[in-house]
Amino acid sequence: MSIDLSQFHQVFFEESFEGLQVMESSLLELDCENVDSETINSIFRAAHSIKGSSSTFGFAEVAEFTHVLETLLDQVREGTRQLLPDHVDLLLQSVDCLRGMLTALQAQETVDTAQSSVLIQAFNDILEGRQPVTQSASTPDGTGSEQSVADASHSAEASDAHLDAAADTETITWHIRFVPDINLLRTGNEPLRMFRELAELGELEVQVDAGKVPDLALLHPEECHLIWDMHLTTIRPQSDIEEIFEWVVDDSDISISATAGVFSGGPAAIPETSVSDPVATSPVESAEATPATPLPAASTAGAGKAAKPQASKPAASAGSGKGSESTSIRVAIEKIDNLVNLVGELVITQSMLGQLGSEFDVSKLQKLQEGLAQLEHNTRELQESVMRIRMLPISFTFSRFPRMVRDLSKQLGKKIELKLLGEQTELDKTVMEKIGDPLVHLVRNALDHGLETPKDRRAAGKPETGTITLNAFHQGGNIIIEIIDDGKGLNREKILAKARNNGVIGENEVLSDEQIQELIFQPGFSTAEQVTDVSGRGVGMDVVRRNIQELNGSIEVKSIEGEGSTFTIRLPLTLAILDGQLIDVGRQTFIIPLVSIVESLQPDMSLINHVAGGCDVFRLRDEYIPIIKLWEIFGVEPRTNNLAESLLVVVEVGNAKVALVVDDLLGQQQVVIKSMETNYKKVDGISGATILGDGTVSLILDITDLIHMAGVHQQSKNGLKLVASKTRAA
Amino acid sequence: MTKILAVDDSASMRQMVSFTLQGAGYEVVEACDGQDAFNKAKLGGVDLVLSDVNMPVMDGITLIKNLRTLPNYKFTPILMLTTESAADKKSEGKAAGATGWIVKPFNPDQLLNTIKKVLG
Question: Is B72 on the interface with A (CB under 8 A)?
């Protein structure tokens, strides 16, 4: 029977990546001075598991590598080797290397073994350095121990050379004497099985010696007192015979010797009868022999049946196995159970309503209303439940930081403690995947620019060890992630100087602390004195903000000089639902994402100016904001084209603010986003659509798009320039 | 149908073993660690136990010791799935009452051959 092992690869990769994750986080926990046995055990187990399954599924490179890891870990676990910080470093590098190898294998690319060979060499150096003889002998190829067991069982009577020569050509009659351990049966080893196997090798004759069997009164039925003498005539080599006794050779007394010529005890009996014979001679023995149930004859027929339904499986899973990790999601069984339960309730409500409908009269109105309320309740719970399936605890993202902080703190020569709070807070998988990079960026910044060196911290009267806290929690329909450091905080003066240098703000402009802190989200804004390896290259905070805004989220910073900074990221729990503000333009209802709305107001006509180039601007306090007339963009007949009778909704994306002219503000509500692209086509200025309670379709505005369409390309810089020039003019 | 209890903390190994055995017409009960296996074994009807050695919660050796204390498992064949490098595990397992072992890595055919021999 041949089985396509590749169907198990996807599971193998998933569990191996999980195992590496366990290894990494446990390694970070390890204290070399005082190695916790449970921690080292879990690291060992993970390496051992990866080794076992990778060798089974044919990933020899991975198996070979994990083998040396395992050997070292085993020694530490057994207490024969002191764990050194260098070992932890090496092990962490190995985790990275293995992750790379597995990723390549998963993508069905060839594996680069250059790094792993270097690491294997490093491990072998360590292993050989201390225990040169025994360990190194079995380490490189891993076959040493197995071989020695087999060697030990060779009987002394005949030389190996003789056997090998005889193996294929000669028919030899072997004399086998089997004196089993008294506890043979208690290990589930059935002598009958061995005789059956021997009989398959050639002609077998078995004689039982019951001389050692005690009197019935003294006999313990679970003990084995019988001794067997066998003669086997076969062309098969001695090793085949030894293999049959492999599991019992250590405890039992087995001698195998070649007898001269053909066995002289007369013609050999038919194997089958001779096998059952010896057992039959001892009634006690045959009673004991029953626990080993023979395979029922029906099982052969069953085999055919059982194989059928699974035949389709390999193809299906091989197809899905090619996709990368992000195409599948692991869901906790309770979530599924909950979902099934809710669907059950929905079915009950539906049948209740169905029955009500078939015999409805006005007297049952109350019941109908109750039923509809129940349906609404069920639907809402079901919606939440389905959403929850896509939710994963944020620990999936947080888990990369302990390692990162460890590596960077070494590199930067800083002492850093990382605190992770709210790791179980759940977040949509897609949002989680996209928030990873911005978070990494922020944490790097905090490490590099935020926290001071131990020396500076001491001078500032702070503890040498800086703290970075990652905190996640739910607030309303959002998830909030905070990145808090107790470092030096944002330097007001430096930011101002830089902004003046870049011409982002005017020479004498006065900004509030909040406005200054906002400046760091400007493009090309870095106050790092020197570009370090860690951060300050290329990607700036403007990109971080843009990435977060693409997820319909926002980021802000609060910083106190000398005490530290707090970055607060606010994200929707899911990308499928949006908090929207319903607005009317003419007879159309549109939806503005609530997160982008700054304020809504009735315009004072005296504050509206017409700028050359055709754009109206509105002066909001000391900012000039371009006005976008939605009716013009979407070709809708407005209720009025008198701005004084309309309303302005000020929205902000990036650092650009615009005012949208609307006829009416309606309610706010959560809307389920339906894609325009999949149902129709991409429409400029529209990010999606939704269906309102009354069944009408409403379009969701894409603010970024609208700003571009209205020709307000200037975005932040010019926006702020307008502010600056105005302030000067005033 | 002959029922086999397959114990391994690695899901891929469990899947591979189950799939192979089911394909050959055996009924398979899966367990993800020694404790899980012990609980499932107690429900009875198991004709053969196939257990990994290194597992969280309860390791394979402890599982074998515990199983041998149950009257129904006094003579039940119990095979360890072990790696070639763990030679001492074999003797430890034997002392605990294991019938024998299958050395990892093994392929489905090797697994089936061994099991067929044990079950007769």
Answer: no
